[in-house]
Fold this protein.
Amino acid sequence: MTVTTSTTDDLIKNQNPFAGHIVVRPQQIWGKSFPDVSSINAHASNAVFDAVEKVRKGKCETIGITITAEKGLGKSHIISRIRHRLQTEDGSLFVYMSKYDNLNQIKSQFLQSVASSLRAFGSQEVMQWQEIAAALINEAKQWNYTPQQYINMYPGWLSKHSTKAIVHFTESVLKIKPEITNPYIVKAILWTLSPVHINYASYWLSGLELAQSQAEAMGLPNPKSEDREAESLSTVRQILDITSYYRVPVICFDELDIADAADNGFMAAQVIANLVKDLYNSLKQGVLLLAMYPRTWEDQIKALPEAEAVVDRLASEQADRQAIALKYLNSDDIVALVSQWLQDFYQEHQQTPPHPLYPFNETKLRELGKSKPTVRSVLKWCAENFVPPSGETPPSPPHPVKPCFDKELANVEASIDSLIEEEAIISDTLWLAFNSLIGETVEGVTIESIEEVEPSAANNGFMDFKIIGNKKKVRIGVDVVQQDRNAIGAALGRLIDYKTFNLTRGCLVRSKKISPNAVLARKYLRILLKDKGGEWVSLQSQDIQPLFAIWFVWYNRESYELAEEQIFEFIQQKQIAINNPLIREILSDPSGQEPTNLTDDGLPISIPKPIANADNIDLNL
C-alpha cells in the first residue's frame, strides 16, 4: 500500500476529512460515527459502563448520571462512544432523545423517542424491538431461536394460522409474565418480527393511531387522542419494564441547553429533569444519562423546586451528588485524536503517509494543548490547516457553509426514510426555504413574508405557516401532514376555511394516499381541489433532501460557527430553494388534481407467503 508523497498530497488537496465534521449529529450516534479515542474523557464513559454492569448484576436497580461540559468539549462524542460500545454487547439497549419540539407534551414525545430508538439495530443486527420480541417468545416457549430465525419463520406461521399465531404467542408470554398489565403492548412487540407489520407495530407502540382497518387487522386498539399524554408515561414504563427482563435500558437525553420553555415556565432541561425523576422512581431498572452545559446544571437543575430530590436522582452514583465534568484536551489527547482521524482517512483511501500525523507537525499540535482546547476547536483548526506542506499554493477554500452542507446532505440521505415522517422538521425546513426567498419572484409569486397562521386558537397547530406575496394578493396556507392518519380530516378542514384564516389558497403537502374510507377527509379534499382552487403537493424524498440538509446546517449554525447571513448567501448561490421542485410546485398554479406519485398508506391485510428455505416449526394451533 506504499505510495509516493505526491500522491498523498494530491489526496489532501481534494479531500479534507475534518471539514464539516465539527458537530456530532444524531445520525452519528446511531450509525457510523466519528473516529473515537477511547482514552479521552474515559472517566465519563466508564462511569456509564460501570453503571450498566451494576444494574445487570443486581447491585442497583436504577442509576442516574449527568455529564456536564462546555460547548464543543465532546458530550455527543461520549454519547456516541457509549452507544457503539453497548451495540457490541448483548445485555443492554439504547434509547436516545435530543429533540424537544413540544415541552408541554414531553411524555408523548418521549414515548415516540423510545419507539424510534428501539427501531435501531442492536447487537444481533436486527432492530432492538425484534431482539426483545424474540427473547419473549424464547422464554415463553422454552425455545432458543435467534431474532432472524423468527423473522424468517413468521410469514409461514401467519400464512398457516393467520393472526392466531400472534394471539398464541401473546397468551404464552402473559402466562409467564402475569405482572404485565397491558397485553396489547406485548402483542405489538411480537408483531415487530413480521417483516410487513414492523412499521405499523412500531408506529402503534409510539402512541400514534393506526387507520381503523389496520388496527383491527392486528388486534390493536387505537389510543384515545384526549388521553394520549396521560397514557404515554404509563406506556413507556411498561415498554421499558418489559425490555428490562432481558436488557438493561440505557436512556440518554442530549441537547438539553435550548432556550425553549414549557407553558409552566420550566426550561427544557428542567422538564426533562422532572421526567427523569419520575422514571427513576418508577422503572424496574435502567441507567438514565443526561448531558448539558455546566451553567444549565447550576442555574436550572439546582433551581428546581425540590432540587435536592432531583439532583439525588440525576447524579445518584456520585458521592457528592455532582455531575461528571468533561475535561479539556491536553497535548497527548490532541495528538491521539488527530492521529486517529488521519489513520481512518488514509486507510479509507489506501494511502501510507510519511508519518501518522502528516501533513501536520506534532510540535504544533502539542502547542495547541497549552490553551486547553475543546474537541470542536481542534477539529476546526485541523480543517483550516489541512494542506500539503509542499509549499504549493493551496486551492481557494470553499464557501464556509459547503463542507457543513455536504456532511448534512450525506446524513440526510442515510436517514431519509425516517426523516420523511417527521412533520415538524419538514415544516421547519419549508419555512426556512421560503424565508430565504423573501423578495424573490418564483412561479409568478413575489414572496413578501412568511407568517404564522392566525387565529391560532382556531388553527390549533394544524396549518404550519402562510406564504404572503404579490402585495398580499396571494396568501397560501401550507400544511404538512405525514403521520397521524386521523388528523388529515381536521387539517383539510382548516385548509378550506379561507375566510377564517384569510387565505387565497390552501396547500396540503403529503407523500401518502388518503384512504377512500376517510369519508370526511375525502370530502374536504374534493372541496379544496375542485371548489377552492387549492393544491395537494406530493412530497418526494429527492426534492426535500437538499432542503433538509441546509435546514440542519441552519439549526446547528452556532455549533458550526456560521452566521445566518452566510447560510442564506449559500442558499442563494447554489439556488437550493429557488430551483427546488417542491418549492416551485407549492407556489405554482394549482392543477386541481390529486398527485399520481403517492405512496400507499394502508396495511397489507393479506398474509405474506412463507419465505423459501426458511427455518420453520409447526405451532400446532
